[in-house]
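Homework-ish question, so no full write-ups if that breaks the rules, but can someone show me the predicted structure for this set?
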Amino acid sequence: QQPVQSPQAVILREGEDAVINCSSSKALYSVHWYRQKHGEAPVFLMILLKGGEQKGHEKISASFNEKKQQSSLYLTASQLSYSGTYFCGTANFGNEKLTFGTGTRLTIIP
Amino acid sequence: DTGVSQDPRHKITKRGQNVTFRCDPISEHNRLYWYRQTLGQGPEFLTYFQNEAQLEKSRLLSDRFSAERPKGSFSTLEIQRTEQGDSAMYLCASSLVLSALTTEAFFGQGTRLTVV
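A: Not a homework solution, just the prediction itself:
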């Protein structure tokens, strides 16, 4: 079942912070975050694993609440280059294919 | 290595025609995925391979769709008797899977299919 992302869209001024949420109705093993710019491929940002391990982007942080089956992506001091659509992809067990959320469109204005 | 490569980037075809897309994954990656993405939506899983073995195929995928990865390297996705509803971006992704480790998948630029 497709994870639900919120908000659907957000507009920020450069330098502001944003939080994007991803929620699943099923128990999660891992959450993967991607950013996609218009007409381009999704670009990997971060993996969060059950048990707390993370790996990914140095300027972006995220959390994973296994009990609530939720993940949040934190974008601090946003830059113009952060604009794009953010997708979370979830897996219910290790190395399973990802099921992607509905996306959050982030627009950063100067 | 330049990442995941897909060909063609764009394809316009008439309804009823067959089309084939190619994906070349990152060379050392043993897993290859196909996804479909329509405007405003997230990528939707179609199928995936571990080396040359097709391990899972989405139940949403009709019999008109077939994918192969004959030597465990590149993969092809064929759509027979295309319909207008097949119009979408077809994305390929690859990853290196070692035992139970979860690793990131890297996407190609996609093939945009338009059925007229």
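Now go work out the reasoning yourself. Hint: The two ends of chain A are 37 Å apart (CA to CA).
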